Amino acid sequence: MRRKLAAGNWKMNGTSAALGELDKLCTAHPSSPVDILICPPATLLHRAATAVEGSEIAVGGQDCHEATSGAHTGDLSAEMLRDAGASSVILGHSERREDHGEQNDDIRAKARAAMDAGLKAIICVGESLEQREAANTLDIIGGQLSGSIPDQSTGENLIVAYEPIWAIGTGKVPTLEEIGEVHDFIRARLERRFGEGVGRSVRLLYGGSVKPGNATEIFGVSNVDGALVGGASLKADDFSGIIRALENA
Ligand code: PEP
User: Fold this and answer.
1) Cα(146)–Cα(140) distance, integer angstroms
2) Which of 95, 228, 239 has the most ligand 1 atoms within 8 A of CB, as the residue to mutate?
3) Average pLDDT of adjacent 10-residue blocks, the chain of 249 residues
4) What's the pLDDT at 1?
5) Residue nearest to atom 7 of ligand 1 (CA)
6) Which atom of ligand 1 is nearest the CA belonging to 95?
């Protein structure tokens, strides 16, 4: 049985005051049958980890460098994230692929570093609108999966998030059939590469304009084990609605 996961990506949002939302979340979910993760900006990571101590909520990073240490101004190693209290790290988000030119090889190297440091790697894949309209979605996702997921992956250290780029922050969501098709495809690819045992144990998240109002139907789709949530994770009330939908799915 895969444990469900509601993961929030705060992106470059939030100063000290945002920690109040985390306190609200801890109060609203003193225990939960699903995993709950918040990935705040790195500046808040340690304080966020302290704020959730003793609760069911975990915190994670939004990126890490592939090296363990060295002359990389402005970057953070996986070990540093772990030391600050992270249990997971988002890698290969489309905004990193776009803003920082990250390629599959970079993401695979970062994922290796994350796993070596004891972090779970949440590897994001997803197609652009042009790629979907050209019927290239599965080819693109297949290339991203084989290029960015390292060989050492297991159900414990890998989570895959399917995030169509055109659905992120736009309010547009693929049909349930489209989500199901991609998630079934990812599952099949993981089983083919890692064998049925590992392939079936990796959690698959959907991400892209998930809100309390559409979460229930998305969580009903086969092979959707939870969500990676951007905008709606910034407010505890909205994210709570998504967590509750997942708990009842
Ligand atoms: C994201 O950026 O990972 C995301 C899914 O954003 P949003 O929920 O705002 O579409």
Assistant:
1) 10
2) 228
3) 96 97 96 97 98 95 98 98 98 96 98 98 98 97 98 98 97 97 98 98 98 98 98 98 97
4) 83
5) 230
6) 2
* Count of other CB atoms within 10 angstroms of residue 166: 21
Stated pTM of the model: 0.98
Name residue, tokens 């030391």: 83
Which residue is listed with tokens 């402005």?
A: 74
Spatial neighbors of 7 by CB under 8 A, at least 6 apart, are 36, 37, 38, 39, 60, 88, 90, 122, 159, 161, 205, 226, 227, 228, 229, 233
Residue 91 and residue 107 in contact, taking contact as beta carbons nearer than 8 Å = yes
Q: Ligand 1: distance of its center to the CA of 79 in Å?
A: 26
CB within 8 Å of 185: residues ≥ 6 apart: 138, 141, 142
* Closest to 226 in 3D by CA, of 241, 247, 206: 206
Q: What is the CATH number of domain 5-247?
A: 3.20.20.70
Q: How far apart are CA 167 and CA 147, in angstroms?
A: 23
Instruction: Record the tokens describing residue 84, joined without a space.
Output: 């600050």
Half-sphere exposure of 32 (CA within 13 A, CB side): 27
Q: Is 163 a catalytic residue?
A: yes
Query: From the CB of residue 67, how many other CB atoms can be counted at a distance below 10 Å?
Result: 14
- What amino acid occupies position 43? T
Instruction: Determine the atom of ligand 1 nearest the C-alpha atom of 90.
Output: 3
Q: Which amino acid is at 175?
A: T
- Distance between CA 149 and CA 119 in Å, rounded? 14
Q: How many residues does the chain have?
A: 249
Domain locations in the chain as residue ranges: 5-247
